Amino acid sequence: MPEGKTLFPKIFQTNQLLFYERFRAYQDYILADCKASEVKEFTADFLEKVLETCGWRAVWHTNVFKVLVEVFCAFPALQMATSFSSSSAWLRADVPGHLSRIRSSPLLVTLCHLLVTIVLIDLPDYSVSSMRVTDVDFAALKAVVRLAEPYLCDSQVSAFTMECMKELLDLKEHRLPLQELWVVFDDSGVFDQTALAIEHVRFFYQNIWRSWDEEEEDEYDYFVRCVEPRLRLHYDILEDRVPSGLVVDYRNLLSQCEESYRKFLNLRCSLSNCNSDSEQENISMVEGLKLYSEMEQLKQKLKLIENPLLRYVFGYQKNSNIQAKGARSSGQKITHVVSSTMIAGLLRSLLTDRLCQEPGEEEREIQFHSDPLSAINACFEGDTVIVCPGHYVVHGTFSIADSIELEGYGLPDDIVIEKRGKGDTFVDCTGADIKISGIKFVQHNAVEGILIVHRGKTTLENCVLQCETTGVTVRTSAEFLMKNSDLYGAKGAGIEIYPGSQCTLSDNGIHHCKEGILIKDFLDEHYDIPKISMVNNIIHNNEGYGVVLVKPTIFSDLQENAEDGTEEDKALKIQTSGEPDVAERVDLEELIQCASGKMELYARTDPSEQVEGNCEIVNELIAASTQKGQMKKKRLSELGITQADDNLMSQEMFVGIVGNQFKWNGKGSFGTFLF
């Protein structure tokens, strides 16, 4: 022990319980199907069954001090007598250890029965069943304690002498909350359940219970409605499965709701003391309604985050609304240099290659950082971040809301940025024109994607993305350009393309993912078809398909209807299976050019596996666009609008699919997923 520290006895380590252990305890043993108004009653019943009523020591732990105390029996003779006078207590398997030793001696048993007789004579008004003396108030969740011997106390201030502590206990009538008591370890096993029960109560009131829960409507049992979602959220936060920004928001909302509820209670109490129909009462009622409305809004936001199905939608909306800083008021642009250690040779190379001032060019400020996250957070519009060779570990999100350049100085394998923590997206882009180049991004044990482009344009060039869950996500209205890069390891899709986005992929490798590229449903009438260009990419060794198109079941229904439709419908029906010959591809190209003249199709003359994959993707995209056009035309006809746009590519979709190689993908080069 460090000098000056008190050597306390060991306590039961109960704060590392797993999720399922707490889940089972609350569901099966403590709360069951009780309502919020019955929580205290059920908790008291549980404690009365499992808690040793006296004879155990604990550490009274507060924010200021900790002191060794013991829960004692005020009338030990009566306690022992009642324990032995009841046959149920005599047969209990969990009686304290000293009682089990006593009943092994016939002489002591006889003496105890004699003691019972004496007590009954002295206390004639009590029955045996009513004499179970306890020093734990189960309803109030408090225990009667005294200072243990020898006196052990450890505090941040030296004012807590034994006399001061005795005075403090006298003020509290020697009654302490169970949540502040940590049971001292005892290898006999007698107090194991006591320590565990107190831990469950402590955890519940610290992390699950809310002061306003009792006033909520009891339409559903309390465990399902409140305990389970809050317990799951607690463990998701512990395991870094919730974005850090969302965790901060949740805790702030919780504090605000607690404060509003406290004000509401004070106001309600003051109203009960006011004269009826007074002006002050009317004003207070208006304030009370405002507080109540504010509190209800806060509670709804809390429930939204507590819901495991909705919290990530909420998190996405929050994180995608990062505000851009814009240009500095002075108009100056800064170059940020990131290096864990700066040596003379590296600095000379930087000055020559990157920081050399051109004749007549405006002076530019240079700032140095030890980690890339701090450099990005310091950026304004037009800044540049140069990352020197090294291995950098970050614990937050790269939230890029301004048009900046993030470039590595050297080869990507020499400039590694590794993300720790499961909850946050690695790179979050909302800037109008973001450029990232020459960096390797490594992600471990994540639940969010490695890069999300919410809006604006993001260019990724000569980078390596070692993913864990989803790779790159291109949201609606966003534009993503990826060149000469390598992406692998995603447990989902390497690249997810949302409706209404633009995605250009050139000379990349996408491999060892669940799926290579996933094009999400774009048949919804509210979204345009994404503009997709894929040139000279190698998509290989993915578990599923190289490219997957996700579309609703109505798509396949329309295709089946087209088989029995008009000649025009049949002409628009496109073959998506088998091996199309060159003539079929030429006819398809002519059809596209005649229809709109706005779509380009590239295909080689050799019917290899790679070309077949390219054509299959194009065919499916065109078929989807055709069906969407038919759906739109039908809706306009129902509204009485007969002059619908007959162009096959009315959305002005540009697709360049050429030179891509699809190799060794588990299910083939292209597939569709219906939902």
Automatic annotation (TrEMBL):
* Residue ranges occupied by any Right handed beta helix domain in the UniProt entry: 435-549
> Which residue range or ranges hold the SHC SH2 domain?
21-80, 131-311
Mind listing the GO biological process terms from this record?
fibroblast growth factor receptor signaling pathway
The record's InterPro entries line, in alphabetical order, gives:
Beta_helix (IPR039448), PbH1 (IPR006626), Pectin_lyas_fold (IPR012334), Pectin_lyase_fold/virulence (IPR011050), SHCBP-like_N (IPR057508), SHCBP1-like (IPR045140)
User: What subcellular locations does the record give?
Assistant: Cytoplasm, Cytoskeleton, Spindle; Midbody
**Pfam families reported in the protein's UniProt record:** Beta_helix, SHCBP_N
Keywords, ordered alphabetically: Acetylation, Cytoplasm, Cytoskeleton, Phosphoprotein, Repeat
What GO cellular component entries does it have?
midbody; spindle
Assembly and oligomerization: Interacts directly with isoform p52shc of SHC1 via its SH2 domain. Interacts with TRIM71; leading to enhanced SHCBP1 protein stability. Interacts with both members of the centralspindlin complex, KIF23 and RACGAP1.
According to its UniProt entry, the function of this protein is described as: May play a role in signaling pathways governing cellular proliferation, cell growth and differentiation. May be a component of a novel signaling pathway downstream of Shc. Acts as a positive regulator of FGF signaling in neural progenitor cells.
Output the PANTHER family linked to this UniProt entry.
SHC SH2 DOMAIN-BINDING PROTEIN 1 (PTHR14695:SF8), SHC SH2-DOMAIN BINDING PROTEIN 1-RELATED (PTHR14695)
Q: Per its record, how is this protein called by name?
A: SHC SH2 domain-binding protein 1
* Source species of the chain: Sapajus apella
Its gene is SHCBP1
